[in-house]
Design a protein that fits this description.
The structure holds two protein chains of two kinds. Chain A is α+β, with helices and mostly antiparallel strands. Helices cover 30% and strands 23% of the residues of chain A. In chain A, strand 12 (252-257) and strand 13 (265-266) form a beta hairpin. In chain A, helix 1 (2-16) runs antiparallel to helix 6, helix 3 (56-63) crosses helix 4 (67-74) and helix 3 (56-63) packs across helix 5 (83-93). The longest helix of chain A has 28 residues, at 123-150. Mean pLDDT of chain A is 78; it is low at 1-6, 8-34 and 109-126. Chain B starts with a helix and ends with a strand. Residues 14-19 of chain B have low confidence and may be disordered. Chain B has a five-stranded antiparallel beta sheet, with no helix packed on it. Classes of the chains: A alpha+beta, B mainly beta. The interface between A and B is large, with 43 and 48 residues.
Chain lengths: 336, 127
């Protein structure tokens, strides 16, 4: 457990604290003192770029920043921009500088600008902050280790935990995947039974590995497993058409371990899927499946050989121009 | 106390960015003329899926690619490859173009979820 605390600190240190070594291109430059940092009109930049048929990646390449930076500029999250980048941006868009500057906003002094993609505080203060937070985390880890040493044995975690992963939403009639991750706390392989009971408006199918038992009357299905290391069980679920449907469909299930007869522990993790006319992989509900969403699909469910994920539909939406929901036919229509 | 000190030491070692090795790296082998070649190197543990995006000047179209491109937009000029289940090793992605390009006109990006943390990683590829 102490190691877990240590690793948590590692993760925090490496991924959350903005260390200077891992900063992206735009943050490695300290804004020069007394340099005017103009504000850009992000909406106008997006309009100009799209009007000229340029991608964010192309503009980012010409300016010498990342696509994330271009995206932030266009969304006006960090409207200040270094003068030299403003010049390059105007060149990339083939417009004059005045066309991309937000004339309604007063220009900032870069030295006074808040940390952002184009003007950040010197790395010295960042390092001081890292050390301060690092020290606090170290103390927290130490206190955690002491507390764990005194923690009663009865509060030790389960020998195997089960965690359900659901998409945030799904439309009626479109099957969506469900994953249940089994994580043993020890190297011992413990026989167990996983039981899932579907809500009335939901159906389950295509277990991977196949279900060991299924009862259609009680809408319950089970796996018998003996996980050696982390194991993932998958199945497809579907909100049935023509049945009374709640705004959120609940999921419930239990895990029973060998030797714990009569003791059933609930499966943790996600417990609801919201009924909504969006593809289950379209997590931000913008009628598109973007790069990060398709990566999430394959990272979460790609290991399930034999799971009927309808990858071709997902890839068609990703590679096309999105999809729309046909409310009459109650189905998704891909926009090629 | 000893365990806490060990945890802190581990923390320092793992957090040191100079020691961290990216699971995927990508570089241009050819970035001038009518052909572009990208070399993608995947280390262990590999990410489950990888997306490579190649941006092109607006007036340049793609004649052929190896492996076949998964997503291509003529306007804007952008080609994408979805590489799934790739183990450790090296892959070369090649594109034949309708017009010659200069290295300063093209750029690329690779996106994957870090196999250790699950967090999305988006890295530019520069010629």
């Amino acid at each position: 457990m102490t190691l877990i605390f240590g690793m948590s600190i590692c993760y925090y240190w490496k991924n959350i604290l903005p260390g200077t070594e891992t900063m992206t291109d735009e943050s490695q430059t300290i804004a020069p003192q007394n340099t005017v940092a103009p504000k850009i009109d992000g909406h106008n930049i997006r309009r100009l770029r799209e009007g000229k048929g340029l991608t964010q990646l192309y503009v980012a390449t010409v300016v010498g920043v990342t696509t994330d930076t271009i995206s932030r500029w266009e969304n006006r999250r960090y409207p200040s921009i270094k003068p030299e980048n403003a010049k390059k941006l105007a060149e990339a868009l083939d417009v004059t500088l005045n066309e991309i500057i937000d004339q309604t906003a007063p220009a900032n002094e870069a030295a006074e600008a808040l940390p952002g993609p184009d003007a950040i505080a010197p790395s010295l203060s960042l390092n001081n902050r890292r050390w301060g937070i690092g020290l606090a985390l170290f103390l927290a880890a130490f206190i955690g280790a002491v507390l764990l040493a005194w923690w009663p044995q009865s509060h030790q975690p389960l020998r195997v935990t089960a965690t359900r992963i659901l998409p945030p939403h799904a439309p009626i009639g479109l099957p969506f995947p469900v994953a249940i991750t089994l994580t043993p706390a020890t190297a011992e392989a413990i026989p167990l039974i996983i039981s899932e009971t579907m809500a009335q408006e939901c159906a389950a199918m295509d277990g991977v590995p196949p279900f060991n038992a299924a009862n259609n009357e009680t809408r319950t299905f089970k796996w018998i497993s003996k996980p050696e290391g982390q194991t993932i069980l998958f199945y497809m679920a579907m909100i049935k058409p023509h049945s009374p449907t709640r705004p959120q469909v609940p999921f419930a299930g239990e895990i029973t371990l060998h030797g714990d007869t009569g003791v059933m522990n609930p499966i943790g993790g996600d417990v609801n899927v919201t009924v909504a006319p969006y593809h289950w992989a379209d997590r931000n509900r913008d009628y598109m499946i973007d790069d990060e969403e398709i990566l999430t699909v394959y990272d979460t469910f790609g290991a399930a050989t034999g799971l009927r994920l309808d990858a071709s539909l997902i890839e068609d939406i990703w590679s096309g121009h999105g999809y729309r929901w046909d409310a009459i036919r109650r189905q998704l229509v891909v926009i090629p | 106390m000893f365990l806490a000190a060990l945890a802190a030491l581990l923390c320092w070692q793992v957090a040191a960015p100079s020691l961290a090795k990216e699971p995927v790296s990508c570089r241009y082998l050819v970035a001038n003329g009518n052909r572009i070649e990208l070399e993608v190197t995947v280390s262990a543990p590999p990410p489950a899926t990888l997306i490579i995006t190649q941006s092109l000047p607006p007036d340049v179209s793609v004649v052929s690619t190896t492996p076949p491109v998964k997503k291509f937009s003529q306007r804007p000029g952008e080609a994408k490859w979805l590489i799934m289940g790739s183990g450790p090793g090296t892959t070369v992605i090649g594109m034949n173009l309708s017009k010659p390009v200069r290295a300063n006109q093209i750029g690329g990006e690779m996106i994957y979820n870090d196999p250790a943390t699950g967090a999305p990683v988006r890295m530019p590829i520069a010629p």
